[in-house]
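Q: Hi! First time doing this. I have a protein sequence and I read that you can turn it into a structure. Is that right? Here it is:
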Amino acid sequence: MRNFIRSLPWFLLLAIISLVLNYLLTPQICGVCTVSADGKAPAVHEKPLPEPPAERSFFILDSSGKNVFEFPGGLIINSTNGKVAVRKMPGWQDSIYRYLNENQGKELLIIAKYLYTEGRDRGTERALHVKNLLSAAQINPSRMAIQTRESTYLYDDRGEFYNGIILMFKDLSVEHQKEVEKSIENKTLYAEYAATNFKPDRTLQAYVFELKAYLEAHPGKKITVTGHTDDRGSAAANHRLGMKRARAVADYLISQGIDKELFIIRSKGESEPIETNDTDAGRAKNRRIEIEIK
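A: Yes, that's right. Below is the predicted 3D structure, encoded as C-alpha coordinates:
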Protein backbone atom coordinates (compact mmCIF):
# COMPACT_ATOMS: atom_id res chain seq x y z
CA MET A 1 0.00 0.00 0.00
CA ARG A 2 2.82 2.32 0.86
CA ASN A 3 4.46 1.74 -2.56
CA PHE A 4 1.23 2.53 -4.36
CA ILE A 5 0.89 5.84 -2.54
CA ARG A 6 4.50 6.73 -3.40
CA SER A 7 4.03 6.01 -7.13
CA LEU A 8 0.66 7.77 -7.48
CA PRO A 9 2.11 11.31 -7.92
CA TRP A 10 4.42 10.05 -10.66
CA PHE A 11 1.52 8.34 -12.40
CA LEU A 12 -0.57 11.52 -12.25
CA LEU A 13 2.35 13.61 -13.53
CA LEU A 14 2.86 11.26 -16.51
CA ALA A 15 -0.88 11.36 -17.30
CA ILE A 16 -0.88 15.18 -17.31
CA ILE A 17 2.19 15.30 -19.56
CA SER A 18 0.52 12.82 -21.94
CA LEU A 19 -2.64 14.94 -22.15
CA VAL A 20 -0.65 18.11 -22.82
CA LEU A 21 1.40 16.49 -25.58
CA ASN A 22 -1.73 15.05 -27.17
CA TYR A 23 -3.33 18.51 -27.19
CA LEU A 24 -0.28 20.19 -28.70
CA LEU A 25 0.65 17.63 -31.34
CA THR A 26 -2.73 16.46 -32.65
CA PRO A 27 -3.51 19.62 -34.75
CA GLN A 28 -0.15 19.33 -36.49
CA ILE A 29 -0.82 15.70 -37.41
CA CYS A 30 -4.39 15.83 -38.68
CA GLY A 31 -4.98 19.49 -39.39
CA VAL A 32 -7.95 21.29 -37.81
CA CYS A 33 -10.02 18.45 -36.30
CA THR A 34 -13.40 18.14 -34.67
CA VAL A 35 -14.88 15.14 -32.88
CA SER A 36 -18.24 13.99 -34.16
CA ALA A 37 -21.16 13.61 -31.80
CA ASP A 38 -21.17 9.82 -32.05
CA GLY A 39 -17.55 9.56 -30.95
CA LYS A 40 -16.25 8.38 -34.30
CA ALA A 41 -13.01 9.54 -35.93
CA PRO A 42 -12.73 13.33 -36.27
CA ALA A 43 -13.48 14.95 -39.67
CA VAL A 44 -10.69 16.89 -41.45
CA HIS A 45 -11.79 20.27 -42.91
CA GLU A 46 -10.45 20.81 -46.44
CA LYS A 47 -8.97 24.14 -47.44
CA PRO A 48 -11.25 26.31 -49.66
CA LEU A 49 -10.67 25.99 -53.40
CA PRO A 50 -8.81 28.89 -55.06
CA GLU A 51 -10.87 31.54 -56.83
CA PRO A 52 -11.12 31.12 -60.63
CA PRO A 53 -8.81 33.42 -62.62
CA ALA A 54 -10.15 36.88 -63.41
CA GLU A 55 -11.61 37.53 -66.87
CA ARG A 56 -9.01 38.77 -69.35
CA SER A 57 -9.04 42.47 -70.10
CA PHE A 58 -7.56 44.49 -72.94
CA PHE A 59 -6.25 47.98 -72.30
CA ILE A 60 -5.53 50.84 -74.67
CA LEU A 61 -2.83 52.98 -73.13
CA ASP A 62 -1.40 56.45 -73.50
CA SER A 63 2.31 57.10 -73.95
CA SER A 64 2.84 57.25 -70.17
CA GLY A 65 1.36 53.77 -69.73
CA LYS A 66 -1.91 55.00 -68.23
CA ASN A 67 -5.07 53.08 -69.16
CA VAL A 68 -7.33 55.10 -71.46
CA PHE A 69 -9.83 52.34 -72.33
CA GLU A 70 -10.48 48.87 -70.93
CA PHE A 71 -12.39 46.09 -72.69
CA PRO A 72 -13.30 42.63 -71.35
CA GLY A 73 -11.79 40.62 -74.22
CA GLY A 74 -8.80 41.12 -76.44
CA LEU A 75 -7.12 41.11 -79.83
CA ILE A 76 -5.93 37.53 -80.34
CA ILE A 77 -3.01 36.44 -82.52
CA ASN A 78 -2.53 32.84 -83.63
CA SER A 79 0.26 30.47 -84.59
CA THR A 80 -1.09 29.82 -88.10
CA ASN A 81 -1.28 33.17 -89.92
CA GLY A 82 -1.10 36.93 -89.56
CA LYS A 83 -4.79 37.48 -88.85
CA VAL A 84 -5.95 39.00 -85.56
CA ALA A 85 -9.25 37.94 -83.98
CA VAL A 86 -11.42 40.38 -82.02
CA ARG A 87 -12.94 38.82 -78.88
CA LYS A 88 -15.50 40.58 -76.66
CA MET A 89 -14.40 44.12 -77.56
CA PRO A 90 -17.69 46.02 -77.88
CA GLY A 91 -17.22 49.56 -79.12
CA TRP A 92 -13.43 49.46 -79.35
CA GLN A 93 -13.36 51.01 -82.83
CA ASP A 94 -15.86 53.70 -81.82
CA SER A 95 -13.78 54.54 -78.74
CA ILE A 96 -10.63 54.99 -80.83
CA TYR A 97 -12.58 57.02 -83.43
CA ARG A 98 -13.91 59.43 -80.79
CA TYR A 99 -10.59 59.76 -78.98
CA LEU A 100 -8.68 60.67 -82.14
CA ASN A 101 -11.39 63.17 -83.12
CA GLU A 102 -11.16 64.84 -79.73
CA ASN A 103 -7.34 64.74 -79.60
CA GLN A 104 -6.09 66.01 -82.95
CA GLY A 105 -2.47 65.98 -81.82
CA LYS A 106 -2.54 62.22 -81.16
CA GLU A 107 -2.17 59.08 -83.24
CA LEU A 108 -2.69 55.40 -82.51
CA LEU A 109 0.39 53.19 -82.35
CA ILE A 110 -0.28 49.52 -83.19
CA ILE A 111 2.44 47.20 -81.86
CA ALA A 112 2.33 43.55 -82.97
CA LYS A 113 4.43 40.84 -81.33
CA TYR A 114 6.03 37.92 -83.12
CA LEU A 115 8.31 35.01 -82.26
CA TYR A 116 11.85 34.78 -83.61
CA THR A 117 10.84 31.60 -85.42
CA GLU A 118 7.92 33.41 -87.11
CA GLY A 119 9.91 36.36 -88.43
CA ARG A 120 9.21 40.09 -88.47
CA ASP A 121 6.93 39.84 -91.52
CA ARG A 122 4.40 37.94 -89.40
CA GLY A 123 4.37 40.82 -86.93
CA THR A 124 3.86 43.30 -89.79
CA GLU A 125 0.93 41.24 -91.10
CA ARG A 126 -0.70 41.38 -87.68
CA ALA A 127 -0.23 45.12 -87.27
CA LEU A 128 -1.61 45.81 -90.76
CA HIS A 129 -4.58 43.54 -90.10
CA VAL A 130 -5.54 45.64 -87.06
CA LYS A 131 -4.96 48.87 -89.00
CA ASN A 132 -7.26 47.63 -91.76
CA LEU A 133 -9.96 46.77 -89.22
CA LEU A 134 -9.82 50.35 -87.94
CA SER A 135 -9.65 51.86 -91.43
CA ALA A 136 -12.82 49.91 -92.30
CA ALA A 137 -14.45 51.75 -89.37
CA GLN A 138 -13.55 54.98 -91.23
CA ILE A 139 -10.67 55.99 -88.97
CA ASN A 140 -8.09 58.00 -90.90
CA PRO A 141 -5.17 55.61 -91.67
CA SER A 142 -2.82 58.61 -91.52
CA ARG A 143 -3.58 58.77 -87.79
CA MET A 144 -2.22 55.25 -87.21
CA ALA A 145 1.35 53.97 -87.02
CA ILE A 146 2.54 50.36 -86.83
CA GLN A 147 5.48 48.67 -85.13
CA THR A 148 6.61 45.08 -84.60
CA ARG A 149 8.22 43.60 -81.51
CA GLU A 150 10.10 40.31 -81.29
CA SER A 151 8.95 38.61 -78.08
CA THR A 152 8.99 35.34 -76.18
CA TYR A 153 5.62 33.77 -75.40
CA LEU A 154 3.67 30.51 -75.66
CA TYR A 155 0.52 29.83 -77.66
CA ASP A 156 -2.26 28.02 -75.81
CA ASP A 157 -3.75 24.64 -76.75
CA ARG A 158 -5.78 26.30 -79.52
CA GLY A 159 -2.69 27.98 -80.97
CA GLU A 160 -3.74 31.42 -79.69
CA PHE A 161 -2.07 34.14 -77.64
CA TYR A 162 -4.02 36.92 -75.93
CA ASN A 163 -1.34 39.56 -75.43
CA GLY A 164 0.10 39.77 -78.92
CA ILE A 165 -1.21 43.26 -79.80
CA ILE A 166 -0.56 46.53 -77.97
CA LEU A 167 -2.54 49.70 -78.76
CA MET A 168 -1.23 53.03 -77.52
CA PHE A 169 -2.13 56.68 -78.08
CA LYS A 170 0.89 58.92 -78.54
CA ASP A 171 1.76 62.35 -79.87
CA LEU A 172 1.45 62.60 -83.63
CA SER A 173 4.90 62.31 -85.21
CA VAL A 174 6.17 65.02 -87.57
CA GLU A 175 6.10 62.53 -90.44
CA HIS A 176 2.49 61.55 -89.82
CA GLN A 177 1.49 65.17 -89.20
CA LYS A 178 2.51 65.89 -92.80
CA GLU A 179 0.47 62.90 -94.04
CA VAL A 180 -2.57 64.07 -92.08
CA GLU A 181 -2.29 67.60 -93.47
CA LYS A 182 -1.97 66.24 -97.00
CA SER A 183 -5.13 64.15 -96.52
CA ILE A 184 -6.95 67.25 -95.23
CA GLU A 185 -5.80 69.46 -98.10
CA ASN A 186 -7.02 66.96 -100.71
CA LYS A 187 -10.12 65.01 -99.69
CA THR A 188 -12.34 62.98 -102.02
CA LEU A 189 -15.88 61.84 -101.18
CA TYR A 190 -18.10 59.61 -103.29
CA ALA A 191 -21.80 59.82 -104.17
CA GLU A 192 -24.38 57.19 -105.11
CA TYR A 193 -25.77 57.13 -108.64
CA ALA A 194 -28.22 60.00 -109.30
CA ALA A 195 -28.23 60.92 -105.61
CA THR A 196 -28.78 64.58 -104.79
CA ASN A 197 -29.49 64.19 -101.07
CA PHE A 198 -26.46 64.12 -98.79
CA LYS A 199 -25.77 61.95 -95.74
CA PRO A 200 -22.49 62.62 -93.92
CA ASP A 201 -20.70 59.40 -93.00
CA ARG A 202 -18.10 58.85 -90.28
CA THR A 203 -15.28 59.77 -92.66
CA LEU A 204 -16.71 63.23 -93.23
CA GLN A 205 -17.64 63.64 -89.56
CA ALA A 206 -14.03 62.92 -88.57
CA TYR A 207 -12.83 65.22 -91.35
CA VAL A 208 -14.65 68.11 -89.70
CA PHE A 209 -12.48 67.78 -86.57
CA GLU A 210 -9.32 67.58 -88.67
CA LEU A 211 -10.33 70.50 -90.89
CA LYS A 212 -11.05 72.77 -87.92
CA ALA A 213 -7.65 72.03 -86.38
CA TYR A 214 -5.95 72.54 -89.75
CA LEU A 215 -7.63 75.91 -90.41
CA GLU A 216 -6.75 77.09 -86.92
CA ALA A 217 -3.09 76.26 -87.59
CA HIS A 218 -3.18 77.68 -91.15
CA PRO A 219 -5.32 80.83 -91.22
CA GLY A 220 -6.09 82.44 -94.56
CA LYS A 221 -6.65 79.21 -96.50
CA LYS A 222 -9.55 78.79 -98.94
CA ILE A 223 -11.68 75.65 -99.39
CA THR A 224 -12.73 74.66 -102.90
CA VAL A 225 -15.48 72.03 -103.17
CA THR A 226 -15.97 70.57 -106.66
CA GLY A 227 -18.73 68.18 -107.75
CA HIS A 228 -18.12 65.54 -110.46
CA THR A 229 -20.49 63.04 -112.12
CA ASP A 230 -20.37 60.10 -114.50
CA ASP A 231 -21.52 60.56 -118.12
CA ARG A 232 -25.07 59.27 -117.75
CA GLY A 233 -27.54 61.97 -118.72
CA SER A 234 -26.93 65.25 -120.49
CA ALA A 235 -23.90 67.43 -119.84
CA ALA A 236 -26.12 70.26 -118.56
CA ALA A 237 -27.98 67.98 -116.15
CA ASN A 238 -24.71 66.54 -114.89
CA HIS A 239 -23.31 70.00 -114.31
CA ARG A 240 -26.33 70.87 -112.17
CA LEU A 241 -26.06 67.54 -110.32
CA GLY A 242 -22.37 68.12 -109.59
CA MET A 243 -23.16 71.58 -108.20
CA LYS A 244 -25.90 70.21 -105.92
CA ARG A 245 -23.52 67.62 -104.52
CA ALA A 246 -20.73 70.15 -103.93
CA ARG A 247 -23.10 72.59 -102.26
CA ALA A 248 -24.51 69.87 -99.99
CA VAL A 249 -21.00 69.03 -98.73
CA ALA A 250 -20.12 72.70 -98.25
CA ASP A 251 -23.40 73.35 -96.41
CA TYR A 252 -22.65 70.46 -94.05
CA LEU A 253 -19.16 71.78 -93.27
CA ILE A 254 -20.58 75.25 -92.68
CA SER A 255 -23.24 73.80 -90.35
CA GLN A 256 -20.39 72.29 -88.30
CA GLY A 257 -18.81 75.67 -87.68
CA ILE A 258 -16.55 76.25 -90.69
CA ASP A 259 -16.68 79.88 -91.88
CA LYS A 260 -18.81 80.09 -95.05
CA GLU A 261 -16.60 82.88 -96.40
CA LEU A 262 -13.80 80.35 -96.91
CA PHE A 263 -15.70 78.30 -99.52
CA ILE A 264 -15.57 78.23 -103.30
CA ILE A 265 -18.26 75.91 -104.70
CA ARG A 266 -18.19 74.67 -108.28
CA SER A 267 -19.10 71.79 -110.62
CA LYS A 268 -17.17 70.00 -113.33
CA GLY A 269 -20.06 67.70 -114.19
CA GLU A 270 -18.93 64.82 -116.39
CA SER A 271 -16.02 66.71 -117.93
CA GLU A 272 -13.13 65.37 -115.80
CA PRO A 273 -13.50 61.60 -115.31
CA ILE A 274 -10.71 59.79 -113.48
CA GLU A 275 -11.88 56.30 -114.58
CA THR A 276 -13.69 54.81 -117.52
CA ASN A 277 -17.44 55.36 -117.73
CA ASP A 278 -17.89 51.98 -119.42
CA THR A 279 -18.07 50.03 -116.14
CA ASP A 280 -20.04 50.37 -112.91
CA ALA A 281 -16.81 50.56 -110.90
CA GLY A 282 -15.44 53.29 -113.13
CA ARG A 283 -18.61 55.36 -113.00
CA ALA A 284 -18.67 55.04 -109.18
CA LYS A 285 -15.15 56.54 -109.05
CA ASN A 286 -16.22 59.43 -111.28
CA ARG A 287 -19.19 60.33 -109.05
CA ARG A 288 -17.13 62.23 -106.52
CA ILE A 289 -16.83 65.46 -104.54
CA GLU A 290 -13.32 66.83 -104.24
CA ILE A 291 -12.25 69.15 -101.41
CA GLU A 292 -9.08 71.13 -101.99
CA ILE A 293 -7.51 73.61 -99.58
CA LYS A 294 -5.00 76.24 -100.70
